[in-house]
Amino acid sequence: MNNKKNIIVTSGPTNERIDAVMKITNMSTGALGAIVADELLKEEELGKLYYISPKLAYKPRNKSKKLELVQIESALELLKALKDIITNNDIYGVVHSAAVGDYYGEYAITGEQLASLIANEVYNKEFDKDELEKVILDVIKNPDIIMDNTHKISSYQDNLMVKLGLTPKVISSIKEFDPNIKLIGFKLLDGVSKEELLNVASKLREKNKADYIVANDLSRIGHGKHYATIINENGIYSECESKDEISKSLRKILFK
Fold first, then answer.
1. How far apart are CA 185 and CA 212, in angstroms?
2. What does each C-alpha distance from 27 to 39, 45, 98, 218, 229 come to in angstroms?
3. Is the CB of residue 108 less than 8 Å from the CB of residue 157?
4. Mean per-residue pLDDT for 206-235?
5. pTM of the model as a whole
């Protein structure tokens, strides 16, 4: 009987393209995810570890044969990679530490182009205030002219505007792919009280049917320290002061 456990670790930021060279990203480096992966790779009961991250994020130092690197960039690519791996393999747990961006670049347009489109829609027409707002919003949502995002936008383009769209909520899909997966999510806030941080993390855990959430406060990360509180359905599971302590706690959760 094979008692080995296959684990997925997602790590680093997602990158959403605006044009051929510009992108929307965040400050995540994937350092914590890489440390977690290295800790899990020490485990004898580990079968395979799928490490999903963008190209420039930190990678595990351990080059074990149990490790498979999966490169993604966007939130949609991350979601697809998770679905493919989970539906085609027996996955025991997912450590979803990737910092998935909330927005992607839906389109780019110049102020002049947008102004012209709006003017064409409203010129010599009579609208009340509510109708006018709707017409303008419809143009903004679906302009007839947008800039080509497969090429580099000119460095000298004045009045450039980028419309942002919402990325998919990746964590909410993981249990849909397999409800039996042990899901560990992460929540990062900045400069909030511990009570508020744990309250938000608890709601995230319940909403996405996660088993554990690692709650972080950005203001308490740095100078070799990474304070975090890991919660489950019973409340606080453990409190950590470093990335190493977090990784050891997660190994215990997955292989206890």
1. 6
2. 23, 33, 11, 11, 21
3. no
4. 95
5. 0.93
